[in-house]
């Protein structure tokens, strides 16, 4: 076996995406307001032989959609994907996908799961068995051929996922957060083994694209990193990965790159190119200015979680390194970023050069008792979140101080997909309830003001509902 | 590598290690004896049935009440059930697959299925029987087919809904895997759709068989106008025994039926349930998976293993190759020149498709129009006074169904909760309850009539009892399942805080079982309506007994060949069932889902 040459990315282009724009298509009618929300905007990328590319981005940046477009599962609204110059019109044998959820067939044995793609190819039985067993052997599943997925641990299951993808000998392996459902140790073990197979060219795969939420994972594995921005998904920056020799954690280059990435990810509104311009040119290639945000987007976090983070930062003197926080709390980007985002939005803390720094109000809140905590949260929420302010105003004006949620959902739907609009409203409800700005009656779908007179006025059904929703 | 190609090396070794080849030879011998006698019985059974089917048409067969005739009758009935079930399964897979994968077809097929499901089965009787007997005027084939089709209509719909629902809710990732690995359509169907639907299908099949037994009794003996029909079978035997007032024969007949049901449960359903366990979508292994002795026997059988390796596998491989040739793998890329848009190439095909779909839709529309026209012409003949009577009758029958449901709920809730909350009792009683539930109420009905005839308003009472007998099991099953699903922590919390007695029922048990209770009542309500047709009008001791109700109206109209009233009554009942489902049960169900689901 020859050692794979350190990838200077001089290989042939395997896959090329040109100006992919994708609109969300709901079931049935196409967005009541007339325009469908944009998921991806003008994304172009190339993947060359010999490289492992990582795709990083906050939630809402359309990573999964992009990956599925590249795999041929989804057709983009505009733009095209080419594999070896040929137009992609559906899944091809050149690409295989490994899923976050493993996506194994629970009723097939390990052997049958691995041989599934070979069966689809129409290979005769013996050939199928031979190839599948060879892969099983290589990936360390020997002895588990006849086991069913439910008998296996998470790590073993994902090995089956890898084996199934590799069995059809794809040129390009697409990895959709393959390690994020595993515990830390198992993930590290599987990562290392995959890299060994890859470095020693034991697998026929010629390139890999890894979608991940984990910055450490991206830095330790990738030759090149693509950073996506959200709302709508767009390519913010492209960063050259470290040379293989320098991917040791705690090496200066490693720490530097991790910090840089955190800085990039926690400042979604800044121009990626401008931010990267200060860096040495060898590391950074280019960035793309971000399109203006059309509407205030709330990160989906529980207020208590965010306040927990603030208290932790306060305990460290009001300033903490995000990379360290993430590692320590074992929070990946998709969990940590929304918290930071929320704190930033409420002006309780702001990200600064890869650190999280509390504001004056943030410090006050982190020290406060429960009642004071809620008061400060309410104050910031009303000042900073337009929709919450609007609901509060509407409630004050409305007869009986009750307002139907449909009114707000309607407006949210103009800017978000159906599911995201509901998620946004749910977050508004969580925050509003926490801040005691309103109560919300889930079954009626109604916001109401919480006042003592009101509960006294309507002692029957509504009061029962309110009590129930409070308990919940 | 070669060693690995054996599929069960460990098992062989352990067997040899156990006590050498003597045991192995004995297992082979046992397999051969069991398999041989099974094959012999099967052949004899089929030859007998075939000769009966091909024999000249005898509308009314003389039934012998001799115990010796019972195995033969049981065989005839079982064959009808099996064939009807096979038909229902085929229908389920085709109809469900098309409805779940084709958006346009779905819009027509699912409302149609909903309608078919709510049409009382016995309303199909005259049309089916007369058409098939006319089609095969010289042999018993038409009559047998008619009976089979009737049973089919009692089995197919819930299975189809279950399959459709399973395919519709397939995990997205698995669907994506199928597309990525470019599985051919037949592979996708077998490995994904059918596999994911298996558990639902097995459970619904068991329900369908219970329903099938219920209507087998009614479909073996009936009269249309001045023509009487009687097929040899267990149903005819039981009815004749009751009619003659022969308690000995009645008991024997019932015992045979129960024996048959138990045999099927042990040899067919229990192994199937245990086998289907592998098709759960949950990725965790269950603590106590269902087991079956028969399945263990089959799995350990060397003869079956040999057959699978030397006959099954090569045969299946050949079939797969053939199917592969018929369905080529889709290509993922096209070698088009850069300037050429793919849309140009697709256009003619999509046009062809759209044209085909339009044509089919048009034909279906014409058919629907024709049916409506014919139906309308029939309905015009129904005088307003008859409509009034039908509506009144519907009200009476509705009250009966309510009474049956109320009685059912009253006893099943305490008993079901008691069973469900005690792990020991639920383990012991559940299989028993399952068997008891699949004994058809219609088989007990003649015996019931003998007992109840002396009471005033006897038939009205008997009708309610029959509805109860036919439907209470759905409720009981669901209540047991609901009680078993109450988290232990909640029960412990209730005990800790001193929540006992009625308060415990009100705050914990009733809300917790509510969703299950609604599910059970929903099924039971439909079943009760259907049962009204067989229970409100009966032939007994050579005379016709009837009570006032929609079921009686429909049964009488069917018997007399009064098609306008039959259609009016059927439509009324179907409309009522659909309406009640939509207005009452679905709403209750959604309420239960939203507020009381313990998840």
- Per DSSP E runs of 2 or more residues, the count of β-strands of chain B stands at 5
CATH class of the largest domain in chain A equals Alpha Beta
* N- to C-terminal distance of chain A: 60 Å
Q: Per DSSP, what share of the residues of chain A sits in E-state strands of 2 or more residues?
A: 15-25%
Structural class of chain B: mainly alpha
Domain count of chain A, please report it: 3
Overview of this protein structure:
The complex is a heterodimer of chains A (472) and B (599). Chain A is of the alpha+beta class. Chain A has 3 domains: 275 residues, 3-Layer(aba) Sandwich (Rossmann fold), CATH 3.40.50.300; 88 residues, Arc Repressor Mutant, subunit A (Orthogonal Bundle), CATH 1.10.10; 88 residues, no CATH class. In chain A, 43% of the residues lie in helices and 19% in strands. Chain A contains 19 helices and 17 strands. Chain A has a 7-stranded mixed sheet with strand order 6-7-8-3-9-10-11, with helices on both faces. In chain A, helix 4 packs across helix 5, helix 13 packs antiparallel against helix 14 and helix 16 packs across helix 17. The longest helix of chain A is centred in the C-terminal third of the chain and has 17 residues. The radius of gyration of chain A is 25 Å and the shape is globular. Chain A starts with 12 loop residues before the first strand and ends with a helix. In chain B, 36% of the residues are buried. The longest helix of chain B is centred in the first third of the chain and has 46 residues. Chain B has a two-stranded antiparallel ribbon. In chain B, strands 4-5 form a two-stranded antiparallel ribbon. By secondary structure, chain B is mainly alpha-helical. Chain B has 4 domains: 40 residues; 233 residues, MetI-like (MetI-like fold); 33 residues; 236 residues, MetI-like (MetI-like fold, Orthogonal Bundle), CATH 1.10.3720. In chain B, strand 4 and strand 5 form a beta hairpin. Classes of the chains: A alpha+beta (472), B mainly alpha (599). Strand 5 of chain A pairs antiparallel with strand 3 of chain B.
């Amino acid at each position: 076996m020859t050692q794979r040459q350190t990838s200077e990315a001089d290989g042939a282009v395997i896959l090329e995406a040109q100006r992919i724009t994708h609109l969300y298509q709901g079931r049935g009618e196409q967005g009541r307001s007339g325009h469908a929300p944009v998921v991806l905007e003008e994304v172009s990328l190339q993947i060359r032989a010999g490289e492992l590319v990582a795709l990083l981005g906050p939630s809402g940046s359309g990573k999964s959609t992009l990956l599925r477009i590249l795999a041929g599962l989804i057709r983009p609204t505009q733009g095209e994907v080419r594999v070896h110059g040929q137009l992609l019109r559906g899944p091809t044998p050149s690409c295989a996908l490994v899923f976050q959820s493993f996506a194994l067939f629970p009723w097939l044995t390990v052997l049958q799961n691995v041989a599934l793609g070979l069966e689809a190819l129409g290979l005769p039985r013996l050939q199928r068995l031979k190839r599948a067993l060879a892969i099983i052997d290589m990936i360390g599943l020997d002895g588990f051929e006849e086991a069913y997925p439910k008998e296996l641990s998470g790590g073993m299951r994902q090995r089956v996922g890898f084996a199934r993808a590799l069995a059809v000998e794809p040129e390009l392996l697409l990895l959709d957060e393959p390690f994020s459902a595993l515990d830390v140790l198992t993930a590290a073990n599987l990562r290392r083994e995959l890299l060994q197979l890859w470095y020693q060219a034991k697998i026929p795969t010629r390139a890999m694209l890894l979608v991940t939420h984990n910055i450490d994972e991206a830095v330790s594995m990738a030759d090149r990193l693509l950073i996506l921005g959200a709302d709508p998904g767009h390519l913010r920056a492209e960063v050259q990965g470290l040379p293989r020799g320098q991917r040791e954690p705690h090496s200066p280059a490693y720490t530097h790159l991790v910090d840089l990435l955190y800085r990039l990810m926690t400042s979604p509104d800044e121009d990626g190119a401008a931010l990267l311009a200060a860096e040495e040119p060898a590391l950074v290639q280019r960035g793309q200015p971000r399109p203006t945000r059309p509407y205030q987007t709330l990160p989906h976090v529980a207020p208590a979680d965010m306040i927990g983070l603030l208290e932790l930062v306060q305990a460290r003197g009001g300033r903490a390194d995000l990379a360290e926080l993430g590692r320590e709390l074992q929070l990946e980007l998709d969990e940590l970023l929304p918290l930071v985002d929320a704190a930033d939005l409420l002006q309780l803390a702001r990200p600064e050069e890869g650190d999280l720094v509390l504001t004056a109000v943030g410090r006050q809140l982190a020290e406060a008792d429960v009642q004071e905590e809620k008061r400060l949260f309410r104050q910031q929420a009303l000042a900073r979140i337009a929709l919450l302010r609007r609901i509060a105003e509407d409630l004050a004006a409305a007869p009986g101080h009750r307002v139907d949620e449909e009114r707000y959902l309607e407006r949210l739907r103009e800017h978000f997909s159906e599911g995201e609009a509901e998620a946004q409203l749910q977050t508004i409800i969580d925050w509003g309830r926490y801040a005691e700005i309103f109560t919300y009656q889930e079954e009626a779908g109604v916001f109401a003001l919480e006042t003592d007179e009101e509960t006294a006025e309507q002692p029957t059904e509504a009061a029962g509902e309110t009590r129930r929703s409070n308990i919940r | 590598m070669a060693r690995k190609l054996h599929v069960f090396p460990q098992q062989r070794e352990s067997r040899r290690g156990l006590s050498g080849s003597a045991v192995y030879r004995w297992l082979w011998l046992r397999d051969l004896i069991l398999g041989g006698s099974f094959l012999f019985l099967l052949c004899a059974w089929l030859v007998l049935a075939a000769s009966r089917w091909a024999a000249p048409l005898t509308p009314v067969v003389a039934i012998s009440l001799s115990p010796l005739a019972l195995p033969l009758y049981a065989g005839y009935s079982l064959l009808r059930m099996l064939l009807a079930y096979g038909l229902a399964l085929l229908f389920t897979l085709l109809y469900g697959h098309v409805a779940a994968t084709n958006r346009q077809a779905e819009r027509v097929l699912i409302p149609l299925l909903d309608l078919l499901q709510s049409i009382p089965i016995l309303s199909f009787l005259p049309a089916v029987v007369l058409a098939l007997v006319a089609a095969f005027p010289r042999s018993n084939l038409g009559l047998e087919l008619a009976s089979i089709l009737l049973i089919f209509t009692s089995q197919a719909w819930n299975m189809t809904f279950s399959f459709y629902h399973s395919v519709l809710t397939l995990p997205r990732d698995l669907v994506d895997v199928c597309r990525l690995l470019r599985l051919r359509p037949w592979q996708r169907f077998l490995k994904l759709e059918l596999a994911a639907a298996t558990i639902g299908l097995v459970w619904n099949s068991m329900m369908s068989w219970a329903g099938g037994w219920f209507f087998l009794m009614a479909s073996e003996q009936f009269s249309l106008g001045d023509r009487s029909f009687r097929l040899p079978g267990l149903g005819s035997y039981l009815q004749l025994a009751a009619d003659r007032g022969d308690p000995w024969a009645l008991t024997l007949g019932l015992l045979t039926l129960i024996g048959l049901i138990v045999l099927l449960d042990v040899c067919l359903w229990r192994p199937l349930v245990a086998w289907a366990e592998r098709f759960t979508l949950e990725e965790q292994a269950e603590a106590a998976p269902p087991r079956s002795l028969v399945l263990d026997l089959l799995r350990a059988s060397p003869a079956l293993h040999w057959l699978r390796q030397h006959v099954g596998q090569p045969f299946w491989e050949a079939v797969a190759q053939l199917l592969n040739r018929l369905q080529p793998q889709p290509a993922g890329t096209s070698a088009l020149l850069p300037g050429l848009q793919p849309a140009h190439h697709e256009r003619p095909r999509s046009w062809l498709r759209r044209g085909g779909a339009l044509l089919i839709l048009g034909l279906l529309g014409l058919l629907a129009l024709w049916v409506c026209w014919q139906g309308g012409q029939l309905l015009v003949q129904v005088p307003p006074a008859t409509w009034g009577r039908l509506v009144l009758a519907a009200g009476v029958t509705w009250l009966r169904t309510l009474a049956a449901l109320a009685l059912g709920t009253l006893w099943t809730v305490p008993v079901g909760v008691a069973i469900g909350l005690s792990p020991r009792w639920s383990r012991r009683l559940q299989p028993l309850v399952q068997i008891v539930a699949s004994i058809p109420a219609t088989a007990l009905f003649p015996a019931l009539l003998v007992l109840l005839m002396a009471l005033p308003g006897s038939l009205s009472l008997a009708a309610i009892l029959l509805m109860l007998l036919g439907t209470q099991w759905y409720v009981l099953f669901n209540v047991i399942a609901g009680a078993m699903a109450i988290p232990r922590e909640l029960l412990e919390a209730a005990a800790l805080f001193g929540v006992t007695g009625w308060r415990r029922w009100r705050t914990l048990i009733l809300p917790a079982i509510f969703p299950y209770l609604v599910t059970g009542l929903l099924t039971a309500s439909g079943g009760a309506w259907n049962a009204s047709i067989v229970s409100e009008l009966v032939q007994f001791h050579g005379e016709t007994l009837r009570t006032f109700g929609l079921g009686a109206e429909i049964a009488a109209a069917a018997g007399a060949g009064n098609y306008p009233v039959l259609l009016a009554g059927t439509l009324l009942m179907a409309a009522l069932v659909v309406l009640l489902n939509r207005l009452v049960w679905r709403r209750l169900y959604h309420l239960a889902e939203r507020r009381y689901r313990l998840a």
